[in-house]
Amino acid sequence: AQRVTQPEKLLSVFKGAPVELKCNYSYSGSPELFWYVQYSRQRLQLLLRHISRESIKGFTADLNKGETSFHLKKPFAQEEDSAMYYCAPLWGGSARQLTFGSGTQLTVLP
Amino acid sequence: DAGVTQSPTHLIKTRGQQVTLRCSPKSGHDTVSWYQQALGQGPQFIFQYYEEEERQRGNFPDRFSGHQFPNYSSELNVNALLLGDSALYLCASSPGLAGIEQFFGPGTRLTVL
Q1: What is the pLDDT of residues B11-51, one digit of tens each?
Q2: Which residues of chain A neighbour B23 with C-beta distances below 8 Å?
Q3: Spatial separation of the C-alpha atoms in residues B17 and B47, rounded to whole Å
Q4: With an 8 Å Cβ cutoff, is A52 touching chain B?
């Protein structure tokens, strides 16, 4: 069965420090992978998609098919990065669905 | 464009009752997906509607049913409510079935007493 694991429920870093949010997935095919973010009192929104290879708000994510990981990284964390982050593979055939991890609450301390 | 809208915002029901939640997709989107988010958990996929048909379904019992209307809006119905159905119900819309980028609504908070 498709499974997503985000091992850290809570993560705190100081402003300016590097941050890495871990995500591991198990899936028999080749899913598309996404990171979604939810800032305080805002709705869930897409942060980045691995296939686009974009850097959004300084975040990047590398897909490691061998380790089936899709960790989210940022070299210098900012206080406004404090939020809940969800890793979400998209899988399926013609109709596809997102499978969300349990999320990591990132707090960036001043 | 208001984006994805959901109603009501909050709802309190008792065990055994039935509930209907509503969702209007973002303008230009024709696919609606529903998710259940329990406290402290990530959203869990319930089902997806496209062209007024259920196209994909997650691991939820038949008590959970839905509908999509010709204007692409959607309803989620839950029968015979259980305490465990208490959660935030999220609706997301996307253009087409590929679901590349899903836009989420603010959710409906359902409390079952």
Answers
A1: 999 999 999 999 999 999 999 999 999 998 999 999 999 99
A2: none
A3: 21
A4: no
